[in-house]
Write a structure and sequence with these properties.
Length: 392
C-alpha cells in the first residue's frame, strides 16, 4: 500500500443517532452527546478513550465541550471543515488521516442540528449586511436580483441544465419519488409510511422555478455520530468494520459558495468531478464496482449532475438514467436507500454517511444485496467532499 494513500487504513466502528424530528426539545449539545454516546456504545469503546473530534461549519457544538462532558482525557486532534453541507464527508477524511498517521487513536465525527426548531437555512434572512466579511459581500452581487435562498441559487443551475440537456421537472420528480419510496419503509424517516407519486410531485407548489416543494430537502432536528479508528484495531472491535476505501475534498476553478454563476459552464459540478477522480484513483474502483450510493439530495437537480460527474452515465444523460429507474428500488444503482434528505431527514449529510455504514454492515432497513462498496457524496454547489466505504 502506498504511504501517500489512506485507502484501507481507517475504519468506522461505531454509529449512533437520535430520532429525527421537527422539534427535538433538546439543545444541540445534548443531541450531539446522545448520538456520540450511542456511537461509542455501538463500538464498545469507553468515552474517556476518545482523543479526536471532527465536525464541520454551521455547527453550534464545540468539540471541547463534548470532550469535557464525555470525560475525554487528552484530546490530540480536532478539526472543523468549512462550507456547510459540502464538508459532510470531509470529517471522515480528516479522522482517517489522523488515525492512519498515529496522530489520534479514536476519533468521533458528529453533526447535531436544530435546523427546524431553532434556525432555518432557507429563510433568506442571514444578516449579511451587518457582517461585511468577504463571503457575505459576495452575496451582495446576487441578493438584490432575488437570489435570496439556496433554492434560488440552485434553480439557476437547474434551469440552464434543463435548457442544455432536455431534462424536465418530471425528471427531478423521479428522484423525489424514489427516495420517498425508501423513506416510506424506513421507521427512522420523518416521512415513514408516506410515499409520493410523480403526480404528487408535479402538483406540489413552486418554490423557485424550476424547483417545486418536493424538489427541496427537509429542515430537521437531530444528530448523528460515528467512531473512527485504524483498520488494524478495527478487526478486534465489537462491530463489523466499515473500511474507508477513499476520501477526498474538492474546490474547482471559479468556485464560489453556491453562486459559481460566472463560470463558462454551469451545467456541471466540476468540484464534484474532482472529488470523483480522487476517489476512483485512491480506491482503484470504478462506477461498476459500486452497488449503492448515497447522493447528497438537498435539491433534486444536483443529484442528476452528480451521477454524471461520477461516470454512472454520460454528460446530459442522467435524465435517461432516472427515466429507466436505475436509481430506484430494484435498480442497478439504488440511491439514498434511507430516504435521503428529502425523505429521512436533513442532518446536513451525516445521516447519509450513516446509511453507507449500514449498507456495508448489512443492517440497512432497505438493504441492497451483496454490498461491497458504497459511494457517499456531500453538498454540491459549494466546495465539497466524498467517500467510498466498503467491506474489509
Amino acid at each position: 500500500m502506498a504511504a501517500d494513500n489512506i485507502s484501507g487504513r481507517a475504519a468506522i466502528v461505531g454509529l449512533g443517532a437520535t430520532e429525527f424530528s421537527k422539534n427535538s426539545g433538546r439543545t444541540e449539545l445534548r443531541l450531539a452527546l446522545e448520538a456520540t454516546l450511542a456511537a461509542l456504545a455501538d463500538a464498545g469503546i469507553a468515552p474517556e478513550e476518545v482523543d479526536g473530534f471532527s465536525s464541520y461549519s454551521v455547527d453550534k457544538v464545540p468539540e471541547y465541550e463534548i470532550a469535557r462532558l464525555l470525560g475525554a482525557k487528552d484530546v490530540k486532534f480536532f478539526s472543523q471543515v468549512p462550507h456547510g453541507g459540502g464538508a459532510a464527508c470531509a470529517p471522515v477524511l480528516h479522522a482517517a488521516m489522523a488515525v492512519a498517521t498515529g496522530v489520534a487513536r479514536t476519533v468521533v465525527v458528529y453533526r447535531a442540528m436544530n435546523e427546524r426548531s431553532w434556525y432555518r437555512f432557507g429563510s433568506g434572512s442571514y444578516g449579511f449586511a451587518s457582517t461585511p466579511i468577504f463571503e457575505n459581500v459576495n452575496y451582495g452581487w446576487y441578493m438584490p436580483h432575488g437570489f435570496h435562498t439556496p433554492a434560488a441559487w440552485v434553480g439557476m443551475f437547474a434551469q440552464r441544465y434543463m435548457h442544455r440537456y432536455g431534462a424536465t421537472s418530471e425528471d427531478f420528480g423521479r428522484i423525489s419519488v424514489a427516495v420517498r419510496d425508501f423513506a416510506a419503509t424506513n421507521p427512522a424517516a420523518f416521512f415513514h409510511g408516506k410515499p409520493i407519486t410523480l403526480a404528487d410531485h408535479q402538483a406540489s407548489r413552486w418554490i423557485c422555478e424550476p424547483l417545486r416543494l418536493l424538489d427541496c430537502c427537509q429542515e430537521s432536528d437531530g444528530a448523528v455520530a460515528m467512531v473512527i479508528t485504524s483498520a488494524e484495531r478495527a478487526r478486534d472491535m465489537k462491530q463489523r468494520p466499515v473500511i474507508v476505501k477513499a476520501a477526498a475534498q474538492g474546490i474547482s476553478d471559479g468556485q464560489q459558495i453556491m453562486t459559481s454563476l460566472y463560470r463558462d459552464d454551469i451545467t456541471g459540478l466540476p468540484e464534484m468531478g474532482l472529488v470523483a477522480r480522487q476517489l476512483w484513483q485512491q480506491s482503484g474502483l470504478a462506477p461498476a464496482d459500486i452497488q449503492t450510493a448515497v447522493i447528497y439530495d438537498h435539491f433534486t437537480p444536483f443529484v442528476l449532475q452528480q451521477l454524471e460527474e461520477f461516470g454512472f452515465c454520460p454528460r446530459g444523460q442522467a435524465k435517461d438514467f432516472v427515466r429507466a429507474g436505475h436509481h430506484a428500488r430494484g435498480g442497478k444503482l439504488p440511491i439514498n436507500t434511507h430516504g435521503g434528505q428529502l425523505g429521512e431527514a436533513y442532518i446536513h449529510g451525516m445521516n447519509g454517511i450513516a446509511e453507507g455504514v449500514r449498507q456495508v454492515r448489512g443492517s440497512a432497513v432497505n438493504q441492497v444485496a451483496d454490498v461491497r462498496n458504497v459511494l457517499v457524496t456531500a453538498g454540491t454547489g459549494v466546495p465539497t467532499s466524498g467517500l467510498i466505504l466498503g467491506a474489509a
